[in-house]
Design brief:
single chain; two-stranded antiparallel ribbon; 12 strands; Pyruvate dehydrogenase E1 component subunit alpha
Protein backbone atom coordinates (compact mmCIF):
# COMPACT_ATOMS: atom_id res chain seq x y z
CA UNK A 1 0.00 0.00 0.00
CA UNK A 2 2.85 2.34 0.93
CA UNK A 3 4.52 1.59 -2.42
CA UNK A 4 1.30 2.52 -4.26
CA UNK A 5 1.06 5.83 -2.38
CA UNK A 6 4.74 6.58 -3.10
CA UNK A 7 4.19 5.72 -6.78
CA UNK A 8 1.12 7.98 -6.99
CA UNK A 9 3.04 10.82 -5.40
CA UNK A 10 5.95 10.32 -7.78
CA UNK A 11 3.72 10.40 -10.88
CA UNK A 12 1.93 13.50 -9.55
CA UNK A 13 5.29 15.26 -9.34
CA UNK A 14 5.99 14.93 -13.08
CA UNK A 15 5.57 17.88 -15.45
CA UNK A 16 2.46 17.17 -17.54
CA UNK A 17 3.64 19.18 -20.53
CA UNK A 18 6.58 21.28 -21.69
CA UNK A 19 7.39 23.68 -24.53
CA UNK A 20 10.42 23.02 -26.73
CA UNK A 21 12.28 25.08 -29.31
CA UNK A 22 12.83 22.94 -32.39
CA UNK A 23 14.95 23.40 -35.50
CA UNK A 24 13.47 25.67 -38.16
CA UNK A 25 12.62 23.98 -41.47
CA UNK A 26 14.17 25.19 -44.72
CA UNK A 27 11.35 26.41 -46.98
CA UNK A 28 10.76 26.42 -50.73
CA UNK A 29 7.92 28.40 -52.34
CA UNK A 30 6.37 28.95 -48.89
CA UNK A 31 5.96 32.27 -47.05
CA UNK A 32 5.76 30.63 -43.65
CA UNK A 33 6.60 27.22 -42.23
CA UNK A 34 5.78 24.96 -39.29
CA UNK A 35 5.93 26.22 -35.71
CA UNK A 36 9.34 26.24 -34.03
CA UNK A 37 7.94 26.41 -30.48
CA UNK A 38 6.01 23.23 -29.78
CA UNK A 39 4.26 21.63 -26.83
CA UNK A 40 4.84 18.01 -25.85
CA UNK A 41 2.65 16.42 -23.19
CA UNK A 42 3.96 13.73 -20.88
CA UNK A 43 1.49 11.18 -22.30
CA UNK A 44 2.57 11.96 -25.87
CA UNK A 45 6.24 11.67 -24.93
CA UNK A 46 5.73 8.26 -23.31
CA UNK A 47 3.69 7.08 -26.28
CA UNK A 48 6.33 8.20 -28.82
CA UNK A 49 9.08 6.63 -26.72
CA UNK A 50 7.29 3.28 -26.53
CA UNK A 51 6.53 3.17 -30.26
CA UNK A 52 10.08 4.11 -31.28
CA UNK A 53 11.60 1.60 -28.85
CA UNK A 54 9.28 -1.11 -30.18
CA UNK A 55 10.35 -0.35 -33.76
CA UNK A 56 14.04 -0.32 -32.79
CA UNK A 57 13.85 -3.62 -30.86
CA UNK A 58 11.77 -5.24 -33.60
CA UNK A 59 14.43 -4.41 -36.20
CA UNK A 60 17.27 -5.62 -33.98
CA UNK A 61 15.42 -8.91 -33.46
CA UNK A 62 14.91 -9.19 -37.23
CA UNK A 63 18.67 -8.71 -37.66
CA UNK A 64 19.31 -11.54 -35.19
CA UNK A 65 16.80 -13.91 -36.84
CA UNK A 66 18.24 -13.13 -40.28
CA UNK A 67 21.74 -14.02 -39.14
CA UNK A 68 20.34 -17.30 -37.78
CA UNK A 69 18.85 -17.91 -41.27
CA UNK A 70 15.32 -17.98 -39.86
CA UNK A 71 14.41 -14.90 -41.93
CA UNK A 72 15.45 -15.27 -45.59
CA UNK A 73 15.50 -13.14 -48.73
CA UNK A 74 15.37 -9.35 -48.89
CA UNK A 75 15.27 -7.54 -45.56
CA UNK A 76 15.73 -3.76 -45.18
CA UNK A 77 15.85 -2.48 -41.60
CA UNK A 78 14.58 0.88 -40.35
CA UNK A 79 16.56 1.43 -37.13
CA UNK A 80 17.76 5.03 -36.88
CA UNK A 81 14.80 6.41 -38.82
CA UNK A 82 12.08 5.86 -36.20
CA UNK A 83 11.35 9.57 -35.69
CA UNK A 84 10.17 9.81 -39.32
CA UNK A 85 7.45 7.17 -39.03
CA UNK A 86 6.27 8.23 -35.57
CA UNK A 87 6.27 11.96 -36.37
CA UNK A 88 4.28 11.40 -39.56
CA UNK A 89 1.75 9.04 -38.01
CA UNK A 90 0.98 11.32 -35.06
CA UNK A 91 0.07 14.14 -37.46
CA UNK A 92 -2.34 12.34 -39.77
CA UNK A 93 -5.41 10.17 -39.17
CA UNK A 94 -5.63 6.39 -39.46
CA UNK A 95 -8.29 7.05 -42.13
CA UNK A 96 -5.60 8.81 -44.22
CA UNK A 97 -3.49 6.72 -46.55
CA UNK A 98 0.20 5.83 -46.65
CA UNK A 99 2.43 4.07 -49.16
CA UNK A 100 6.18 3.50 -48.93
CA UNK A 101 9.08 1.58 -50.45
CA UNK A 102 10.58 -1.67 -49.15
CA UNK A 103 11.92 -0.37 -45.80
CA UNK A 104 8.41 -0.86 -44.46
CA UNK A 105 8.40 -2.72 -41.12
CA UNK A 106 8.10 0.49 -39.05
CA UNK A 107 5.23 1.89 -41.08
CA UNK A 108 3.38 -1.43 -40.95
CA UNK A 109 3.53 -1.12 -37.16
CA UNK A 110 2.45 2.54 -36.96
CA UNK A 111 -0.39 1.91 -39.40
CA UNK A 112 -1.90 -0.73 -37.12
CA UNK A 113 -0.05 -3.99 -37.69
CA UNK A 114 1.08 -5.87 -34.59
CA UNK A 115 4.66 -6.89 -33.77
CA UNK A 116 3.54 -10.52 -33.84
CA UNK A 117 2.04 -10.19 -37.34
CA UNK A 118 5.13 -8.38 -38.66
CA UNK A 119 7.62 -10.87 -37.21
CA UNK A 120 5.56 -13.82 -38.47
CA UNK A 121 5.48 -12.26 -41.94
CA UNK A 122 9.27 -11.93 -41.88
CA UNK A 123 9.59 -15.65 -41.17
CA UNK A 124 6.91 -16.54 -43.78
CA UNK A 125 4.35 -17.98 -41.36
CA UNK A 126 0.58 -18.33 -41.60
CA UNK A 127 -0.01 -15.76 -38.85
CA UNK A 128 1.91 -13.07 -40.75
CA UNK A 129 0.22 -9.84 -41.76
CA UNK A 130 0.16 -11.01 -45.41
CA UNK A 131 -0.40 -14.64 -44.37
CA UNK A 132 3.29 -15.43 -44.89
CA UNK A 133 3.22 -14.66 -48.63
CA UNK A 134 4.66 -11.15 -48.67
CA UNK A 135 7.78 -11.22 -46.54
CA UNK A 136 9.77 -8.14 -45.55
CA UNK A 137 8.92 -5.94 -48.54
CA UNK A 138 5.22 -6.66 -48.95
CA UNK A 139 3.22 -5.95 -45.82
CA UNK A 140 -0.20 -4.30 -45.88
CA UNK A 141 -3.00 -3.25 -43.57
CA UNK A 142 -5.99 -0.91 -43.76
CA UNK A 143 -5.10 2.33 -45.60
CA UNK A 144 -1.49 1.11 -45.93
CA UNK A 145 -0.44 0.01 -49.40
CA UNK A 146 2.96 -1.49 -48.66
CA UNK A 147 5.83 -2.25 -48.91
CA UNK A 148 6.80 -1.91 -52.65
CA UNK A 149 9.91 -3.64 -54.03
CA UNK A 150 10.41 -1.61 -57.22
CA UNK A 151 12.41 1.57 -56.57
CA UNK A 152 10.19 4.64 -56.92
CA UNK A 153 7.18 2.70 -58.24
CA UNK A 154 5.07 3.49 -55.17
CA UNK A 155 5.10 7.25 -55.94
CA UNK A 156 2.64 7.21 -58.89
CA UNK A 157 0.53 4.67 -56.97
CA UNK A 158 0.37 7.10 -54.04
CA UNK A 159 -0.77 9.88 -56.37
CA UNK A 160 -3.50 7.52 -57.59
CA UNK A 161 -4.65 7.00 -54.01
CA UNK A 162 -4.69 10.81 -53.57
CA UNK A 163 -6.73 11.13 -56.78
CA UNK A 164 -9.27 8.71 -55.28
CA UNK A 165 -9.40 10.86 -52.10
CA UNK A 166 -10.09 13.96 -54.18
CA UNK A 167 -12.64 12.17 -56.35
CA UNK A 168 -14.51 10.90 -53.28
CA UNK A 169 -14.30 14.29 -51.53
CA UNK A 170 -13.61 12.67 -48.15
CA UNK A 171 -11.00 15.20 -46.92
CA UNK A 172 -8.41 12.41 -46.71
CA UNK A 173 -4.84 12.58 -48.01
CA UNK A 174 -2.07 10.21 -49.03
CA UNK A 175 1.45 10.24 -47.61
CA UNK A 176 3.77 8.98 -50.33
CA UNK A 177 7.29 8.03 -49.19
CA UNK A 178 10.45 7.30 -51.14
CA UNK A 179 14.19 7.46 -50.48
CA UNK A 180 16.99 9.65 -51.78
CA UNK A 181 18.04 6.73 -54.01
CA UNK A 182 14.67 6.85 -55.80
CA UNK A 183 14.57 10.65 -56.02
CA UNK A 184 16.19 10.78 -59.48
CA UNK A 185 13.59 8.48 -61.06
CA UNK A 186 11.68 9.88 -64.02
CA UNK A 187 8.35 8.50 -62.83
CA UNK A 188 8.63 10.67 -59.70
CA UNK A 189 8.83 13.87 -61.77
CA UNK A 190 5.93 12.73 -63.96
CA UNK A 191 3.94 12.21 -60.77
CA UNK A 192 4.86 15.67 -59.44
CA UNK A 193 3.50 17.16 -62.66
CA UNK A 194 0.16 15.34 -62.54
CA UNK A 195 -0.27 15.95 -58.80
CA UNK A 196 0.33 19.68 -59.25
CA UNK A 197 -1.97 19.93 -62.28
CA UNK A 198 -4.82 18.15 -60.49
CA UNK A 199 -4.08 19.66 -57.05
CA UNK A 200 -3.99 16.23 -55.44
CA UNK A 201 -3.98 15.92 -51.62
CA UNK A 202 -0.63 14.14 -51.47
CA UNK A 203 2.40 14.71 -49.22
CA UNK A 204 5.50 13.54 -51.09
CA UNK A 205 8.15 12.62 -48.51
CA UNK A 206 11.78 11.91 -49.39
CA UNK A 207 13.42 10.05 -46.51
CA UNK A 208 16.98 11.16 -47.15
CA UNK A 209 19.17 8.75 -45.18
CA UNK A 210 22.26 9.97 -47.08
CA UNK A 211 22.93 6.77 -49.02
CA UNK A 212 21.07 5.13 -51.91
CA UNK A 213 22.32 1.57 -51.41
CA UNK A 214 26.08 2.23 -51.20
CA UNK A 215 26.14 5.57 -53.03
CA UNK A 216 26.21 8.84 -51.09
CA UNK A 217 23.73 11.54 -52.11
CA UNK A 218 26.62 13.79 -53.23
CA UNK A 219 27.76 11.16 -55.74
CA UNK A 220 24.25 10.38 -56.99
CA UNK A 221 22.49 13.74 -57.33
CA UNK A 222 23.55 17.00 -59.04
CA UNK A 223 21.29 18.76 -56.51
CA UNK A 224 20.85 17.33 -53.03
CA UNK A 225 18.12 19.88 -52.18
CA UNK A 226 15.43 17.21 -52.52
CA UNK A 227 12.78 19.49 -51.02
CA UNK A 228 13.20 21.83 -54.03
CA UNK A 229 12.91 19.08 -56.62
CA UNK A 230 9.17 19.59 -57.06
CA UNK A 231 9.99 22.90 -58.82
CA UNK A 232 6.35 24.05 -58.90
CA UNK A 233 5.45 22.22 -55.67
CA UNK A 234 6.22 23.90 -52.32
CA UNK A 235 8.72 22.09 -50.12
CA UNK A 236 10.15 21.73 -46.60
CA UNK A 237 13.48 20.35 -45.41
CA UNK A 238 13.08 18.84 -41.94
CA UNK A 239 15.29 17.37 -39.23
CA UNK A 240 14.18 13.74 -39.58
CA UNK A 241 15.97 12.67 -36.39
CA UNK A 242 13.69 14.79 -34.18
CA UNK A 243 10.19 13.38 -33.75
CA UNK A 244 8.82 16.82 -32.83
CA UNK A 245 10.25 18.44 -35.98
CA UNK A 246 8.70 15.72 -38.14
CA UNK A 247 5.39 15.97 -36.27
CA UNK A 248 5.06 19.74 -36.74
CA UNK A 249 6.16 19.64 -40.39
CA UNK A 250 3.67 16.88 -41.18
CA UNK A 251 0.85 18.78 -39.45
CA UNK A 252 1.73 21.81 -41.58
CA UNK A 253 1.84 19.71 -44.76
CA UNK A 254 -1.45 17.96 -43.94
CA UNK A 255 -3.20 21.31 -43.39
CA UNK A 256 -1.81 22.49 -46.74
CA UNK A 257 -3.26 19.45 -48.54
CA UNK A 258 -6.63 19.49 -46.79
CA UNK A 259 -7.14 23.19 -47.58
CA UNK A 260 -7.17 22.37 -51.30
CA UNK A 261 -3.76 23.83 -52.16
CA UNK A 262 -2.56 20.60 -53.76
CA UNK A 263 0.62 18.60 -53.14
CA UNK A 264 3.55 19.48 -50.90
CA UNK A 265 7.03 17.96 -50.69
CA UNK A 266 9.00 17.16 -47.52
CA UNK A 267 12.61 16.06 -47.24
CA UNK A 268 13.37 14.33 -43.95
CA UNK A 269 17.10 14.32 -43.20
CA UNK A 270 17.63 11.03 -41.41
CA UNK A 271 20.09 8.13 -41.10
CA UNK A 272 19.98 4.34 -41.15
CA UNK A 273 22.24 2.44 -38.76
CA UNK A 274 22.19 -0.83 -40.70
CA UNK A 275 23.35 -1.25 -44.27
CA UNK A 276 20.96 -0.83 -47.19
CA UNK A 277 19.74 -4.39 -46.65
CA UNK A 278 20.91 -7.35 -44.62
CA UNK A 279 23.30 -8.32 -47.44
CA UNK A 280 25.12 -4.98 -47.02
CA UNK A 281 27.47 -4.69 -44.02
CA UNK A 282 27.13 -0.90 -44.39
CA UNK A 283 30.77 0.00 -43.69
CA UNK A 284 32.44 -0.20 -47.11
CA UNK A 285 31.16 3.23 -48.21
CA UNK A 286 31.02 4.95 -44.81
CA UNK A 287 33.10 4.66 -41.65
CA UNK A 288 32.12 3.05 -38.37
CA UNK A 289 33.03 6.39 -36.77
CA UNK A 290 30.40 8.19 -38.88
CA UNK A 291 27.70 5.75 -37.75
CA UNK A 292 28.82 6.05 -34.13
CA UNK A 293 28.79 9.84 -34.30
CA UNK A 294 25.17 9.89 -35.50
CA UNK A 295 24.21 7.41 -32.79
CA UNK A 296 25.84 9.50 -30.06
CA UNK A 297 24.69 12.95 -31.22
CA UNK A 298 21.42 12.54 -33.15
CA UNK A 299 19.72 9.29 -32.13
CA UNK A 300 15.93 9.95 -32.22
CA UNK A 301 15.14 7.83 -29.15
CA UNK A 302 17.96 9.31 -27.05
CA UNK A 303 16.92 12.83 -28.07
CA UNK A 304 13.34 12.30 -26.89
CA UNK A 305 14.49 10.50 -23.72
CA UNK A 306 16.88 13.35 -22.79
CA UNK A 307 14.17 15.95 -23.34
CA UNK A 308 11.74 14.10 -21.09
CA UNK A 309 14.24 13.45 -18.30
CA UNK A 310 15.69 16.96 -18.28
CA UNK A 311 12.19 18.48 -18.09
CA UNK A 312 10.96 16.14 -15.33
CA UNK A 313 8.41 14.51 -17.66
CA UNK A 314 9.45 10.96 -16.79
CA UNK A 315 11.88 9.07 -14.57
CA UNK A 316 14.73 6.81 -15.63
CA UNK A 317 12.95 3.90 -13.85
CA UNK A 318 9.72 4.51 -15.74
CA UNK A 319 11.47 4.48 -19.12
CA UNK A 320 13.39 1.35 -18.14
CA UNK A 321 10.06 -0.28 -17.29
CA UNK A 322 8.84 0.52 -20.81
CA UNK A 323 12.07 -0.98 -22.22
CA UNK A 324 11.46 -4.22 -20.29
CA UNK A 325 7.83 -4.44 -21.52
CA UNK A 326 8.91 -3.79 -25.11
CA UNK A 327 11.64 -6.45 -24.95
CA UNK A 328 9.12 -8.98 -23.66
CA UNK A 329 6.66 -8.13 -26.46
CA UNK A 330 9.42 -8.60 -29.06
CA UNK A 331 10.58 -11.91 -27.55
CA UNK A 332 7.00 -13.23 -27.45
CA UNK A 333 6.49 -12.19 -31.08
CA UNK A 334 9.75 -13.86 -32.12
CA UNK A 335 8.69 -17.04 -30.35
CA UNK A 336 5.39 -16.99 -32.25
CA UNK A 337 7.17 -16.22 -35.53
CA UNK A 338 9.43 -19.26 -35.17
CA UNK A 339 6.74 -21.74 -34.05
CA UNK A 340 3.68 -20.72 -36.10
CA UNK A 341 3.20 -23.12 -39.06
CA UNK A 342 4.04 -22.13 -42.61
CA UNK A 343 1.06 -21.69 -44.97
CA UNK A 344 0.05 -24.96 -46.68
CA UNK A 345 0.55 -25.48 -50.43
CA UNK A 346 -3.21 -25.32 -51.09
CA UNK A 347 -3.20 -21.68 -49.91
CA UNK A 348 -0.56 -20.70 -52.47
CA UNK A 349 -2.89 -19.24 -55.11
CA UNK A 350 -5.61 -17.83 -52.86
CA UNK A 351 -6.53 -14.13 -52.94
CA UNK A 352 -5.49 -13.51 -56.56
CA UNK A 353 -8.84 -11.81 -57.09
CA UNK A 354 -11.30 -10.14 -54.72
CA UNK A 355 -14.95 -11.28 -54.54
CA UNK A 356 -14.64 -13.78 -57.38
CA UNK A 357 -15.79 -17.40 -57.60
CA UNK A 358 -12.99 -19.89 -57.00
CA UNK A 359 -10.94 -20.71 -60.10
CA UNK A 360 -8.23 -23.10 -61.21
CA UNK A 361 -4.68 -21.83 -61.57
CA UNK A 362 -2.06 -23.63 -63.62
CA UNK A 363 0.90 -24.86 -61.61
CA UNK A 364 4.46 -25.40 -62.83
CA UNK A 365 3.18 -27.55 -65.70
CA UNK A 366 -0.17 -27.83 -67.54
CA UNK A 367 -1.22 -30.87 -65.48
CA UNK A 368 -0.61 -29.32 -62.08
CA UNK A 369 -3.75 -27.50 -61.01
CA UNK A 370 -4.15 -25.31 -57.98
CA UNK A 371 -7.25 -23.64 -56.65
CA UNK A 372 -7.66 -19.91 -56.01
CA UNK A 373 -10.22 -18.75 -53.46
CA UNK A 374 -11.01 -15.04 -53.01
Amino acid sequence: MLNMIMSARTYADFTTQATFEIKKCDLFKLDEGPATQVVLTRDEGLQYYRIMQTMRRMELKADQLYKQKIIRGFCHLYDGQEACAVGIETSINLSDHLITAYRAHGYTYTRGGTVKEIMAELTGRRGGIAKGKGGSMHMYCKHFYGGNGIVGAQVPLGAGVALACKFQGNNQLCVCLYGDGAANQGQIFETYNMAALWKLPVIFICENNRYGMGTSVERAAASTDYFKRGEFIPGLRVDGMDVLCVREATKFAADHCRSGKGPILMELQTYRYHGHSMSDPGVSYRTREEIQEVRSKSDPISLLKDRMLSNNMASVEELKEIDVEVRKEIEDAAQFATTDPEPPLEDLCNHIFCDMPSLEVRGTNPWAKLKSVS
